[in-house]
Amino acid sequence: MIDVVFLLLVFFMLASRFGVEAALPFPLGGGAGDPPDRLLVIDVRPTELRINGTLTTQEELPNAILAFAPQPNQPLILRPKNGASVQDVLTIADLITQEKFSNLVLVE
Q: What is the distance between the alpha carbons of residues 57 and 45, in angstroms, rounded to a whole number?
């Protein structure tokens, strides 16, 4: 009987969550309104970052986004490539939202 209780205790300890969950809102599609003049695609890779094919760094990312998309409501497409981790994408998404760009779209 004690073995069963111990197994249940271990099961519930491993199945429970102990961290704080955070959520970033990623829209699934565009809303009503005029489409943007051009799309802004940000390729997130493990070792590099590209905006519409142009190589950039995390430090240069806000200025590069402003050069491509001067309006803060412009949709920005985040596309993980070559095995980029979820943390890589979330780091870039957090950096972008700090610059008041909130219309992020995550694609595979």
A: 11
The answer to whether 105 touches 27, Cβ cutoff 8 Å, is yes
pLDDT for the residue 19:
66
pTM above 0.85, yes or no: no
CB atoms within 10 A of CB 105: 17
**How is residue 90 written in tokens?**
């979330």
Among 65, 66, 72, 74, residue whose Cα is nearest residue 35: 74
Q: Label residue 45 left, alpha or beta by phi (over 0 means left) and psi (-120 to 50 means alpha).
A: beta
Amino acid at 99: E
- Cβ(81)–Cβ(45) below 8 Å: yes
C-alpha pair distances (Å), 92 with each of 6, 30, 32, 66, 67: 43, 21, 26, 15, 17
Q: What is the DSSP letter of 68?
A: H
